[in-house]
Amino acid sequence: MMPLQGKGCFAIMSTLKSVIICLAFCFAGLWGNALQAQENNVFFVSGVEVDVTAASARDARNIALTNGQREAFSQLYRKVVAEEDWAYEPTLANDQLAPLVQGFDVHNERSSDTRYIATLDVSFNADRTREILGGLGVSYAETRTKETLILPLLSLAGTDILWGSQNIWLDAWKAYPTGASLIHYVLPKNDLKDQRLLSPRHLLALRPDRISAHLSSYELEDVIIAHANVRRAGLTGTTSLNVKTYRGAAMVPLFEIFVSQQNGESLDDLLKRTVDRIDSTLSEAWKAKVLIQYGSQDHMSAVVQVRDFEAWRAIIQSLDNIAQIRSLNIESLAFEEARLSFDYYGGLEQLRVALGEQGLFLLTRPDNGYEIATEPTGVRQAQVEEQSGVRTPTETVNERPVLEQKPDGAVKLLIERN
Q1: Are the beta carbons of 172 and 268 closer than 8 angstroms?
Q2: 314 exposed, middle or buried (CB, 10 Å; 0-12, 13-18, 19+)?
Q3: Quick one: DSSP state of residue 334?
Q4: What residue ranges define each of the domains in the chain, with the CATH number in brackets?
């Protein structure tokens, strides 16, 4: 058995001895950089603003950091827990909060003799946070969606705006702390390439070919279009937004919301509040698919087809990105396939969804076992080819990881090509 421990070392257990093999490709970034890891970490909250005045700058800073961490936990709770359970959010004392915080970063610090202003990014300890949520008896989500492009289309004073500095609707999305969401938004670059590929006319005319081409330029598969129509009441001068949302290149309608300007509220704040409403609606729909209960843990053993070195590396990295998977082990590694085992939180369907967000499929084999594949056909397609004697022609070089045991008991990983 080869448990995957740490960041990039395969610990290979045998009856004779334990041998640690640190693979060369680990140094090429198998596990991704720290930033990507934080983006995939649902227990990470960014962009918490603090502003505290106290007797001294030191006191103000200490109070601000504690308040900021408490606000970060509140944001985390609402991020991962269904809205119907928000009323159960705990009020944590300082000695309860401190053990939950794994670390934090401080940005944009400003201070005077009595005032402290900053922005915090806070990372919470996953296991201790789960224990808190489990003690409350609430279900929670640990899976973010796959990367999803967001296209904010603005209709203002008879003009439809998608790109350029005049799209204040796009600016509102850029200012929104998207890292605090379970929806993994990707914001458009708003550059000349965007303008060449897609225009407001293409969206309004429902041109899936142009939307698909634009998606391909970002190497993404999913898109959400948020069309905001700004309306101003003639007598009161109050501004309101009518926003229609769509999903995918086919622009399948999702939902429609109306948001009216509050007394003293600026247009920028109205747009920000509307973004929050849209994100909340999308997030709650997503949570309904992926909520798990603390302590609901199961075990899985699955086969992975080892086509080539890069595919193998990508699958392992994708599995490592799934927060609800624990204790990932390599049970065996042969010429054409490997067998993995792991523990996971939640039910089988939640696991399927989590794998799907990483571009993986959980398939049932003829022997009622499981296979993790990068395509939905997986082993069944291979079996059809085997039975028919027809193989899909390919000119690519096949690479297979092979374990070789030396006379002294050491284990070496080789890459065999044919």
Answers
A1: yes
A2: middle
A3: -
A4: 2-32+296-417 (no CATH), 43-136 (3.10.28), 148-290 (3.40.50)
8 A C-beta contact, residue 314 and residue 30: no
Q: Give ∠ CA 386-392-397 in degrees, rounded to 5.
A: 105
- Residue 409 region by backbone torsions, left for phi larger than 0, else alpha for psi between -120 and 50, else beta: left
CB 357 within 8 A of CB 347: no
Q: Is residue 237 within 8 Å of residue 164, measured between CB atoms?
A: no
The DSSP call for residue 292 is B
- DSSP secondary structure letters along 382-411: HHHHHHHT------SPPEEEEEEE-TTS-E
d(CA 111, CA 247): 44
Structure tokens at 78: 């609402």
**Length of the chain (residues):** 418
Which DSSP letter does residue 347 get?
Answer: -
Q: 414: which 2 tokens?
A: 């080789």
For residue 337, what pLDDT is reported? 81
Q: For residue 142, with 0-12 CB atoms within 10 Å meaning exposed, 13-18 middle and 19 or more buried, which class applies?
A: buried
Give the residue carrying structure tokens 């041109």: 207
Per-residue pLDDT of the chain (418 residues; tens, 9 = 90+): 545 443 333 333 332 223 223 333 343 343 344 444 455 678 999 889 999 999 999 999 999 999 999 999 999 999 999 999 999 999 999 999 999 999 999 999 999 999 999 999 999 998 899 999 989 999 999 888 989 999 999 999 899 999 999 999 999 999 988 777 899 999 999 999 999 999 999 999 989 999 999 999 999 999 999 999 998 876 667 889 999 999 999 999 999 999 999 988 898 999 999 999 999 999 999 998 888 877 677 888 888 887 777 777 888 888 887 877 878 888 887 777 888 888 887 778 888 888 888 888 888 888 878 888 888 764 444 443 444 343 333 333 344 444 444 454 444 444 444 4
For the residues of 124-179, what is the DSSP string, one character each? E-HHHHHHHHHHHT--B---PPPPEEEEEEEEETTEEE-SSTT-HHHHHHHHS-GG
Helical H segments across 184-266, by residue range: 192-197, 200-204, 208-217
Q: What are the φ/ψ torsions at residue 176 (nearest 5 degrees)? A: -75, 140
Q: Which two tokens stand for residue 335?
A: 């010429």
Please, is 250 exposed, middle or buried when counting C-beta atoms within 10 Å of its C-beta (0-12, 13-18, 19+)?
exposed
148's CB contacts (< 8 A; 6+ apart) are 183, 184, 185, 186, 220, 222, 223, 224
